[in-house]
């Protein structure tokens, strides 16, 4: 009888992690182990993912299919190696097939204020994760990187060959971790790793059962707009940081992609780490590669405000204030390589992202809190 491959997802209860787990379960090929310290996530998200996956099982589902909808969830902290080692010990040497490493602190502005916290959490903890993986013969990793590794890129859309030159401590933690993973793959050819550089995930699962629910005031634009429309953020006016950038309407442009498209990209990357993978030439100096995930088409802050106005019916007011440190005028991906080599696509448009986000937020005004 076929068996499921055990896959560990760090940050599994978070926005990206929960949707990645859902798509992993949909393949019926993986058993998911989630680790999360719930710093910016809610364990209730995992219960909903499991419920969603179970509801989609066919009536004649096999035992393996049913097992694939269960999540082995652990509340633990990547900065505490003994907690992570305990999870690997549960499965033994070779027991975990691969890791999708998503957990990280991710606010650009905050990283400029508390850089040491970001380096400890995003870089040091990744090193100890890799050491523990090595100890337990787990040598496949999909790393959730970021478009911030490019800093202010010379060319738009941005190809993967662009030099890495991050402008913020957060971006630098991503460059450092990518470099460490690549060096490790170069030193030991049993390692295989793919790094996914992506832009701005948006939207929610179309059912409205899971979505983006940051703790505290949202640091990202779309969840902030959703919280304003639902009455959780009382600000009457949205502050827009700068309208004098070299972009069509002067506000920052970002490459938004639907969270479900992004989650599928992670699973495609994980599949590409299998033994029959064609993404690495046999003579490659290291089995490491980076891919951009995005739509290849940017949208501005003001375009997003308008799209959310349509989706929610809420009359947003905004005022332009000064630029924010660390912001880059335009980050738009060139996702051609991922399309060609991984079969990645991001068909959902901005309207769909806003509709799905609002569907989640309006059904769950308090997110994963008490309804």
From TrEMBL:
Cofactor: NAD(+)
Domain NAD-dependent epimerase/dehydratase: 7-272
Keywords from the named record: Carbohydrate metabolism, Galactose metabolism, Isomerase, NAD
Keyword set includes NAD: yes
Reaction(s) the record says it catalyses: UDP-alpha-D-glucose = UDP-alpha-D-galactose
EC class: isomerase
Documented EC number(s): 5.1.3.2
GO biological process: galactose metabolic process
Transferase is among the record's keywords: no
Membership in a protein family: Belongs to the NAD(P)-dependent epimerase/dehydratase family. In the N-terminal section; belongs to the NAD(P)-dependent epimerase/dehydratase family.
The name this protein goes by in its record: UDP-glucose 4-epimerase
